Each structure stands twice: as C-alpha cells, then as structure tokens.
Amino acid sequence: MLFNSFVFLLAFLPVTYFVFWTLPNAKSRYIWLTITGYVFYGYWDPRFCLLMGLSTAVSYTAGLGLLKWSDPRRRRLLLIVPITADLAILGFFKYANFLMDSFGKVLNWAGAGVSIPHWNIVLPIGISFYTFHTITYIVDSYRGVIKPTRNIFEFSAYVSLFSQLVAGPIVRFRQIEEDLERLGQADRTRWLGLGISFFVLGLLEKVIVADTLAFFVDRNLAQYQLLSTSSTWLSMIGYSFQLYFDFAGYSDMAIGLGYMFGLRIPINFNSPYKALDPSDFWRRWHISLSSCLRDYLYIPLGGNRHGEWKAYRNLFLTMLIGGLWHGANWTFVIWGAYHGLLLATYRRFGASWDRLSPVLRQISMFVLVLFGWVLFRSTDFGMATHLFATMLTPTSGLAVEGLVPYTLVLFLAGSWAVAGPNAQELHMDWAPSRIRFVGLAAAAGASLAILLGSGASPFLYFQF
Amino acid sequence: MTQLLRKFVWLGLLALVGLIAAESMARVDDSIRSGTPLLATPSYTDLTMQDSLGTRGRPFARYEKWKLNGAGFRGREISLTPQPGCTRIAVMGASETFGYAESPEKEFPSQLADSLKRTGCYEVINTGVTGLPLTGQVQLWENWVSRFEPSVGVIYASPVFYLSNDPPAFQTHRQSRPSAPATTPSPSFSPRLLARLHDRVHYPDFIQRGRVMRKIASLIQGKPKGWVYQSVPDDRLALFREHLDSLITSVRSRGAEPVLVTHAMRFGEQLDGEDKDLLRAWRQFTPRASENVLMRFEVEAAATVRDLARERGVPMADVASVMTGRTKWFADFAHFNDEGAAVIAQCIASTVRQVRAPPATVVLAASR
C-alpha cells in the first residue's frame, strides 16, 4: 500500500486513526498498530508477513535473553545468532541472485563455461528497512543502550509500524521508546495539526514535485542513448531533485503519520543540496541511514580511532556496504564506493576545500552528488558510461521533451531544494493558525488533483 | 450553536479552497504534461477533425496520453517522403490501430516499427483515426496518407461499424473548412477535476451492468419489430466486403502494396461473467445487433477478409485466428493492451517482411 494511494488515504488511514484513538490503553493500541502494520504490509503480498513475523519473533526473543543473561558468552551468542538470521534472510531475498550472477560471470570470464541458475526470488518490499530496525534493536540491547522490552506487542508495534515500515526512516527503538511507553496516555489532539501538516507537505513534495519531474525525466532517460549533452545534464539534474523530493516527501509523510499517532519520528532529510562538503551531505541526506551506518558499522570498524589510513579505509568500507544495502547491483556498490572516496578525500584535503567560497562549495558538492546519481539511476554500467560520456563530451542529439514546462518545473523544484526551507524548518514553532490550514487545504486539494489524474506512483526507495 | 455553525462554515471554506486549488492544479498539470491550454475544455474528440481531406487526426492535437504530429498521425514527426532505401508502411484502421488502451508508444503500429527495425529500414506511420470506418479510410488514403508515399498499406478494418443503424457510406458533401478546434477557450466551464474523478472512479459491476442495460433498452425502445438483427445481416457483410475491396483498389492505384489483417476480438467460444458484461457494453455502440450477432458478424467478417485476400491476391496477416478469444491480450472487447499489441505487431511484421524484404542498407528510421 502506498501513502499516496486512495485506498490508503480514504480507507486505511481513517479507519486506523479512529479505531486507534478509541482504544483505551497502550496494550490495545500496540495490538492495533501491529494488526494495521501487517494489513498495510500484507496488502502488497500477504506471504511476506510471515517473514516479518519471524524477524520480529527472533529479535524479541534475543532481547528477552539479553535482559535475562549477563554472561558475556551468552550475550555475544544472542547478538550474533539473531543478526545472522536477519542478515541471512535479507541476503537470500536480496542478494542471492546477485551473488550467483556475479560468481557465474567471474567463472565464465576465467573460461570455466558454467551456467549458474537464476532463481525466481521476489524481493519483499521494505525488507532492508525492517531488518535494520531489528538489528539496531538487538545491537542497542546488547550494548545496554536500551533496555529490551518485555512487551511483545510493544515490540511488534515498533517493527510493523506502518508509517516507517517499508521505506523508513530507519527509526531506532530508543528514538521512539519513550513515546511508545506513553502511548496509552497520548493526547490525540496534541500533535494532530502538526502531523497533518507534515503529511500534506510530504504528499505535495511527492505527488506534485517529484512525480511531475519524473514525468519528464523518465521519458528522457528512456532514450538516454539519443540525448544531447545539455539534455542529459538537464535530465540528471531533474533526477537529482526528483529523488530528493520523492524520498523526502515519503519521510515527511511518515513523520506526519507518526505525529498523528502520538509518535515522534526523527527527521530524515535536512536540505541535502545545501551541503557544502561530502560529510555535510551525509549529515543531511537520509540521516537515519547514515547515522545507522556510522553507529553500527563505521564506529565498530574502528572509526577514526586507529590512525588516518584506517579511518579512510573505514569510511570507504562503510559507504561501500551502504551502497550495497541500496540494491543488489554493482552500480550501487560503485556508487557507495564513490561516496566513500569523496568522504575519504574530504577528510584528507578538507582544509583546502573549506577555504573555497560557500557558494562554490555548494555548487561543486551538488555536481559531485549528481555524478553519483548517474550511477544510482543507471540500470547497468553501459548506461552509466554512456551518460557520463555524453555529459562530459559535447554531443549532439535529442532535445529534452517538453523543454519549456520541464525547465520551469526544474527551476521551481531546484530553487526550493537548494535555497528554500525544508519540512523541518517550515514546522519550526508550528502552531495551528487559519492561514496554515488554508495553505494545507490548498496543498491537499492540489495533490489530490494530481493523484486523480495520474494515479499513485511508487516511491523510488521502495525498491531498496 | 453559533460556535458549531462557525465551525461548519470554516470547514466549508477550507473545502472550497481545496476544490479551487484542485481544479487549478488539474489545469496546470494538464498544461505541463500534455500542453492543454489552461482555459480549454479538452476531450477525446479533440484528436480528430473534418476538413476537405475528410475525417483525420488534427495536426498537433493532444489529449491525455495521446499526441499527434504535424500531419495528424499518432507518433513523431515524419517527412513527406521516405528515406532513401527505406520501406514506408502506412497502418490504417480505427481506434484499435490508433491505440486506445495501450501505454504511449505501445500501440501496435509503434511495436510494429520496433519489430521491423531490427531487420531493416522500415518507417511505420500510424494513420489510424478513432471511429473511422472503411469509407473514411478510403478517403483518408486518397486525399492524405498516399501523399506520404507509403509502399505498403496495412489495413486493419473494424467490422462493427457495419452494424450501426446507418451503415458507413462514402461522403458526398465535404466540409471545406476545418472544424473549430475543441481546445480553444470555451465559454462554458467544465471542471477538469470532475473529469479526472470520472476517469478514476469505477462503478461496481452490478451498477455498471444496470446502467448499460438501461442504455441499451432506451436505444431500442420504440423501434419496429425486426429492427434488432437476429442473425448476421448479409447486406451489411457484403457492404463491408465492398468497402474493403475499394480500399484495396485505392491502395494499389497509388502504387502501394496492401496487406490485409483480420480483425480480432476478445470473445471466444466460452464467455465468462466479465466477457458477458463487456460484450453487453460493446453493444451500446451497435444496439441493432444482439450480442450473439455481434460476435458472429466479427467471425464472418474475418472470413470475408480471408476470402477477399485470396481472391485479390493480397498478403494477409490472420490475426483473428491467433488472438480472438485470448482475453489476456485485450483491454476491452477489441482494443489491445500492451501485450496484445505486441502480438498483433509480430503477426503483421512477419507478413510485411514477406511482402517487402528488408533492403540491404539498414538505417534506423522507424517512426513512432
């Protein structure tokens, strides 16, 4: 189910909301959130609810064990076994074919001439996200950062919380533990207006901005071999903004939904195209992922505690794995490696970079990120190579389809992303007011008009 | 009480703001995506026009997913003459050819171009016009399509027009001026939001069934006994054959090679509930023919096409025998979905290759 679909907006959300707030206590609300989470997830394919149930049960049991035992060996076992199980499930569904295909290619390259079978595996939506949720829970429990919950309903409500289930943000248990504990006493009206406002803004970002850009970008990149240099640049700039508004829109909708149900979900995007350097970019883009990568990968690898070269290595490895997390394709791996290199290079030469003017750094950073998006958007290296070649050497070819309206949309979207306020800034010191509600009504009406016209398009990050 | 009233007024105002924003956004969205003027009242009929050349596609017309080029054909711009060494193919037909239900660039002439371009230099022009019977196609071929010098004319004729109350006939009166474009600003306000809602909302089957039945009942109400065909009308079938024969003659007279294609439909021997509903819905356009006659007429028209092809020595793609009754290839009674369009394109491509083997020089020039 998509947040921007009519079945969600007109049936699922109203029913979930009204039943939730009529329930008397925390336990019944946890159960309701669990049920609705499974309905939300199962709407796509009910079979995979079992997978999520299994992951929940394993992590919950591990949490109980960590609560009970203080013996380091047992605790280590309780850390390793469930994480291995979670990663094995993720690995099978997401990476099995990728690994086998790659292995087959290597063998054939070496002249072995073997045929590796391709399994027909369906990738369960959101598996990367809820696997992250359960792993962070186990690791935090092991580290003693959180006290694992004994309440199975509370934990299952956390894992299957529909607002963050399939495309994040990656909310750690500790980040909403307090709100979950107080769910029975939550005040329905306290954050309702704020929640609606975040949700409508996210809907606007997704439906009006991202989908309109996608309309042009997808058509142009479908014939990328024929595009001219300027058309390729325009298409990739459009894709950069499309991706941002698509994912930031989803995250803002998730945050809004969280508020509506009395849960504060942390910010996931903070105007990433205002970033002045690679570190700054990753502090602003998909914050929940980058902070998880930092806390659960970079720091355990040693972080910057063992000298400069190991810090470079750790940065590179962290981003490489982060790239692979995005998808089972070498283009994602190289995209991750590219960002690892950017971060390592900035760490080495950051002082010189920081002496440049802020405007120059912002523009340069945008261009560097855009080069990364070429890899991210490409279905294979052939496409990426072609796009890079066209962008970097003057090439004649097709002009962008719908140049005038596209440029106008691109200008508006770009101005907002590069210089305008983000959702968090727009909701600073938020208080209900008539003018705000008029604005919200207009934004909701405009978004619904687009939805009626073109239907609900999937979010780009669903594929991860 | 006053407070409650105020609340309602406030909510009403918010709803009004939302509606105004929605209507404005619908217009801006139409303008951005399909170039529809903000103040126009667009409709599907914007895509066709009548002028001295006959009924044809309106040059540069746009409506929703459909876009026409400067010649009024669906697809990209084309030159008046084919590229040297290339075979130009004109595909003639009605809405099935024009591409009603397929995604953009998936209508069968487009997929025919994709299929042919792998083997040589072919240019495919989609000259299909929604609602155009064979008589109109003859006129369109003679006055307009033949100017583009196609060397092959693929004919995919819809027989169903021959079951309407007034059968297709050659026009004697020709309009000298183009009809006013429907996209000019209209004084009457027609809400785009409502149009979008109408497109999106699907009535439950039982309501839709009732609506269709009421419409058919009203169409046949008061008609004399015998008005509704109980069997396939031979005179109409003969007329279909005669007009198809005229089109073959006309295509040949301009030096092009005709290729006939038998007409396929969704309905086979066994009909399930959905088929029956669709068949009844189809009948709305031809209330004179009962559902059974409608199907039989299609079958006999396909046989007529086969006979005519044999008699006149015209190459033929027997699409009906491949596709009729295969529901998965149809979006409704006779319009293809993307997959179905690929199947018919493949069938026609293999016939075209037999008629015009690819030339030695290979240049990518498939028109889409």
Brief summary:
The complex is a heterodimer of chains A (464) and B (368). Chain A is mainly alpha-helical and 464 residues long.
Structure description:
The complex is a heterodimer of chains A (464) and B (368). With 464 residues, chain A is mainly α. Chain A has two domains: 6-185, no CATH class; 192-463, no CATH class. Chain A contains 18 helices and no strands. The two termini of chain A are 16 Å apart. Chain B has two domains: 1-42, no CATH class; 44-164 and 226-355, 3-Layer(aba) Sandwich (Rossmann fold). In chain B, the strands form three sheets. In chain B, strands 6-5-7-8-9 form a five-stranded parallel beta sheet, with helices on both faces. A two-stranded antiparallel ribbon of chain B has the order 1-2. The radius of gyration of chain B is 23 Å and the shape is globular. At the A-B interface, helix 8, helix 16 and helix 18 of A face helix 1 and helix 5 of B.
What value does the average pLDDT of chain A take? 90
Tell me the distance between the termini of chain B.
64 Å
Strand content of chain A: under 5%
Give start-end ranges of low-pLDDT stretches of chain B. 174-185, 360-368
Say what oligomer this is: heterodimer
How much helix, percentage-wise, in residues of chain A? over 70%
Please tell me what the overall shape of chain B is.
Answer: globular
Keywords:
heterodimer, A: 464 residues, mainly alpha, 2 domains, 18 helices, B: 368 residues, alpha/beta, Rossmann fold, five-stranded parallel sheet, 11 helices
List the helices and strands and how they pair.
The complex is a heterodimer of chains A (464) and B (368).
Chain A: H1 6-22, H2 26-42, H3 49-68, H4 72-109, H5 127-143, H6 152-159, H7 173-181, H8 192-221, H9 229-260, H10 278-284, H11 287-298, H12 308-326, H13 330-354, H14 358-377, H15 381-392, H16 403-419, H17 423-426, H18 434-454
Chain B: H1 2-34, E1 48-51, E2 54-57, E3 62-63, E4 66-67, E5 87-93, H2 95-98, H3 108-117, E6 122-126, H4 134-143, E7 152-156, H5 192-200, H6 205-220, H7 234-253, E8 257-261, H8 273-283, H9 291-312, E9 316-317, H10 319-323, H11 338-355
Parallel strand pairs in B: 5-6, 5-7, 7-8, 8-9
Antiparallel strand pairs in B: 1-2, 3-4
